[in-house]
Structures are given as structure tokens and as C-alpha cells.
Amino acid sequence: MLGWVITCHDEHAQKMADQLAVRFGPLVQCQVVNYWRGLSCNMLSRMMCDAQHQADSGNGVIFLTDIAGAAPYRAAALLSHKHDKREVISGISYPLLESLYPLRDLTDSVGFRNTIVARGAPDVSSLWHQQQKNPPFVLHYPL
Question: Sheet holding 125-126: strands in order across?
């Protein structure tokens, strides 16, 4: 099963997790990180790291964030580069998470990433999709 780390500004992540728990029962391998005003980036990173390890069973972790480029998204992006099978999604909403919750058992992290972006477009994107728009710099000539 894919682990989820839902992280949004203020209490929005907790509200979505609470609604999912009402619909599906206790959320296994699902962690919530609320990003409160005044929370340092260092503390956010530590909270995200802890959440990622608690949510991971070895099948991968999906970071579900509200705003692309905001602090939770950036913290998730940094963590995703340090571990395999990590995806960072931005622009999430409760209806989208509710519709894709059962997919956690049926697919891998890449398949989940592609599905959530396809269903949530144009508001939903992923770190991987953004990186495809701006590929890394490649040196064409030897030094």
C-alpha cells in the first residue's frame, strides 16, 4: 500500500484526513502535517521526514500538498530526492483524494502520480511533471 502524507496550510490537511476517516475508517499509512503560520522551514522539514517514515511500508509515499512551490511542497520535494518511490503532488482537494483513496492498494507511486494528475488536471500537478517542463541543464561540450 502506498503511504500518504497530506500537508497543507493551516488545518486543511487535518480536515481532509478527518473527512477521509469518516468515509473509509481509520487511515492506515496516512500522516498529516499542518503548516501553521510562523512554523520554521527546519521544523516543517523534520515533521515531514517523521511523517514520511511513519507512512512508508516500502511501497512508496505520496506527498499530497495544497500549493505548488509553497513551503510544504518544497519540503516534500527535498525529501523526495533522498528516497526512492516518492512523489510530490500539488493542488489536491478532498473530492479528488476521496476518489483515489482505493487506488493506494492497486498501483505503484508512478502510476498513482500519473492517475491523480490526469484526473485533477489542470489544477493538479506533480513535481515530476514540472521537472519535465524544465529539464536539467546538460553540458553539450567538454570543459
Answer: 30-35, 3-9, 61-65, 86-90, 125-126
Categorize the per-residue pLDDT at 83 as very low, low, confident or very high, splitting at 50, 70 and 90.
Answer: confident
| Structure-block grid coordinates of residue 105 | 492498494
Q: Which residues are catalytic?
A: 9
The model's pTM is 0.91
E strand spans, the chain: 3-9, 30-35, 61-65, 86-90, 125-126
Considering the chain, what is the average pLDDT of its residues?
Answer: 93
Instruction: Using the structure block, give the residue that is written with the C-alpha cell 520554521.
Output: 40
How far from the centroid of its chain's Cα atoms is residue 73's Cα?
8
Residue appearing with cell numbers 505520496: 62
Instruction: Find out whether the peptide bond into 122 is cis, omega within 30 degrees of 0.
Output: yes
Residue 82 has pLDDT above 70, yes or no: yes
Run of H or E residues at 32: strand 30-35
Q: How many CB atoms lie within 10 A of CB 37?
A: 6
- Element (DSSP H or E) covering residue 63: strand 61-65
SS3 15: helix
Q: Per-residue confidence at 132, pLDDT binned at 50, 70, 90?
A: confident
